[in-house]
Design a protein that fits this description.
650 residues, alpha+beta, 28% strand
Length: 650
């Protein structure tokens, strides 16, 4: 339900603010003899209520004034902050003229000052980095690998790593790493100074966990993989799949053993690609929830100054060890529920942090701030909307993947954030959706969404990993209903019909491992259907077609075809289609082998080949039916053709 345009905001803060305004106005009017005391009280009370209690849209008037002032002051393009700093790389020139590219601007600034002859400690601490005392062992900050800017600790001196097997000595010289005796008892280890905005790898007995530090907040991330090769059934009024994020399982682990965390469940993806067939394909899927491409990530935040975490922190050697323990606890619980996950290392966090805004090149570029939307040059317009409390339910959350792109809603990307917060011993959920469009959206994609008017920038920044997060949104206690809200991974492409009016979608890839697909058919039209649909859903398809059987005349920016098995596509493909006579592009994440009809394939003993041995997904296409089989399920389907599809298949 869309928020009422006018409502009351009654809280302790609003009442106190009203009383202060009433007293101030009364004093001012009475002191100047403008009106009697009773009139001054009345004027002050009315003004206080109007400014602090009566809410217009999602804010009281003084909040609107604050937003307007902030908007006027920040008219210049702004850059996103990750972990408290603006992401970006810096180049440091060494005394010998060689260059080093550094992921942290703070670290680059510190090393530059050191190379210019400045005091080491002052250079590092001035850039916001910690610097150890001489002769002190690195302890928890010890680095197993040597990175640029790391400090080599000796009993009586220090050195600084400059990368490429070079170090900066205490004498002010750049020397080879081999000239530094790190095997003696005087060497204590390498200290890795945590740089703001740059994740670090924390090693424990179970592996490596990337940790991002932003002030007193520690952040980790988990990539959610779900179950392998699970289908989605599109019904006339919705979609069903068993591949779901177990929200209640996550909530159960958010306050355990004295360590409290906040969790954002982020789903980012798109229904279709920029392929020439994509618009028609989108209409064929209709207003049913489906995503051609989609990733899911958990962003876990722990505040070390949170009173609810103090009890657990005293039992951990470091705060990093505490967030690692909480992260592993969530990951194990989700895995046990049947949903695969992967805890991201530092490199994975860096790659994922800005993926929802187009990746590093787009995410590090300035963004133009507007009152109702943001403009990202080269990508489009970003518009954030939040859900009312009664709409934070599975049905409404899943509907964000049903927005068909049209003239009124030219949506190219969707990002859904389910924010899980601990409130009074219970976990509450609020939700926000951000859509990317080629043109500004004059209205919300659906009537029940509330636009983040006046705080579009804050809404975007709060979904990027860092101490800032979504707070103050309408929320509701988490129930079992939300276990059906967040679908994992892409829905896939249409393979066939189920019953009279349903369609089975099948993903052609899996994030955990490369996927081998075998298609048993001699129907070239059906193969072209699979290629076109995969491209429309977002795959980049390389087709090796020596006989010219699967070549289509309609152009596509996502399909590259060649008869030459030695040719290489102009971009890395995500799906390679070939006839099985050797994979011409083995680096692709998914490979589709087009074999003949299964009945024509016999091994040397005259029997059918082992169906479960050769492929992760098998699709057998016959004139009257389609059979799809994986290690988890097998289903008999009816062939499905969409209106006007054949135009793109000739």
């Amino acid at each position: 339900m869309k928020r009422s345009p006018v409502s009351l905001h009654v809280s302790l803060g609003s009442v106190l603010a009203t009383e202060i305004i009433t007293a101030a106005v009364t004093f001012a009017t009475v002191a100047t003899n403008l009106v009697p005391l009773w009139a001054g009280l009345a004027i002050g009370a009315v003004l206080g209520v109007l400014l602090c209690v009566v809410r217009f849209g999602d804010a009281v008037p003084w909040r609107w004034l604050q937003r307007a002032w902030r908007h006027v002051r920040a008219r210049a393009p702004r850059q996103l902050v990750v972990g408290g700093v603006t992401p970006g790389e810096e180049t440091v020139v060494l005394p010998d003229g060689s260059e080093r590219t550094v992921a942290s601007r703070a670290l680059a600034e510190a090393v530059r000052e050191v190379l210019d002859g400045g005091p080491w400690r002052q250079a590092y601490e001035g850039a916001g980095l910690s610097f150890p005392e001489v002769g002190v062992a690195p302890g928890p900050a010890e680095s197993t690998s040597v990175d640029f800017g790391d400090i080599g600790q000796f009993t009586e001196h220090q050195v600084i790593a400059l990368g490429d097997s070079k170090v900066y000595s205490a004498d002010g010289d750049v020397v080879e790493m081999s000239d530094v005796d790190t095997s003696s008892s005087q060497f204590l280890g390498w200290f890795h100074p945590p740089a703001p905005g740059v994740p670090i790898d924390v090693q424990d007995r179970d592996g490596v966990v990337g940790v991002l530090i932003d002030g007193t907040t520690l952040i980790t991330m988990i990539s959610v993989w779900g179950r392998a090769h699970m289908p989605t059934r599109l019904r006339p009024q919705g979609a069903d799949t068993p591949n779901l994020v177990p929200i209640q399982v996550i909530c159960h682990e958010m306050q355990r053993y004295g360590l409290g965390v906040d969790v954002d469940v982020i789903s980012d993806g798109s229904r279709t690609s920029g392929d020439s067939y994509a618009a028609q394909y989108d209409k064929s899927i209709g207003a049913r929830s489906a995503a051609g491409q989609r990733t899911n990530t958990l962003v876990i935040r722990m505040d070390v100054d949170d009173p609810q975490s103090l009890e657990g922190l005293v039992w951990r050697s470091t705060t990093a060890a505490a967030i690692v323990a909480a992260t592993r606890r969530i990951a194990v619980a989700v895995e046990r529920s049947g949903c695969r996950v992967k805890i991201l290392d530092a490199q994975g966090i860096q790659q994922s942090a800005l993926d929802t805004v187009g990746g590093v090149p787009a995410g590090t570029a300035p963004i133009e701030c507007g009152w109702a939307e943001l403009r990202q040059p080269g990508r489009g317009y970003l518009s954030s909307f939040y859900f009312s409390a009664e709409d934070v339910v599975a049905e409404k959350l899943d509907e964000v993947w049903s927005f068909v792109a049209d003239a009124a809603r030219p949506i190219t990307r969707t990002t859904l954030v389910l924010a899980l917060r601990r409130i009074d011993g219970q976990v509450h959920a609020s939700a926000m959706v951000r859509v990317t469009s080629t043109q500004p959206l004059p209205t919300a994609p659906t009537p029940y969404l509330n636009r983040a008017t006046g705080w579009q920038w804050e809404a975007l920044q709060a979904t990027i990993p860092g101490a800032a997060r979504l707070v103050g949104l309408p929320s509701t206690p988490v129930t079992a209903d939300l276990d059906r809200a967040i679908v994992v991974g892409p829905s896939g492409i249409p393979i066939g019909g189920v019953g009279r009016d349903s369609i089975l979608l099948m993903p052609l890839s899996d994030p955990a491992a490369p996927t081998q697909i075998t298609v048993y058919t001699d129907n070239d039209f059906s193969v072209r259907q699979l290629i076109r649909r995969a491209a429309a859903a977002g795959d980049r398809v390389a087709v090796y077609d020596p006989a010219g059987r699967w070549t289509m005349t309609a152009a596509s920016s996502h399909i590259w075809s060649t008869p030459d098995p030695s040719a290489q596509p102009p971009w890395p493909p995500t799906l390679v289609v070939h006839n099985g006579q050797g994979n011409p592009y083995p680096g692709a994440w998914s490979s589709m082998v087009v074999a003949g009809p299964r009945s024509s394939l016999r091994d040397r003993h005259g029997s059918h080949p082992d169906r479960g041995r050769r492929a992760d997904i098998e699709i057998e296409i016959k004139p009257d039916h389609v059979r799809v089989r994986t290690q988890r399920f097998e289903s008999m389907l009816t062939p499905v053709a969409f209106r006007n599809e054949q135009t793109y298949l000739n």
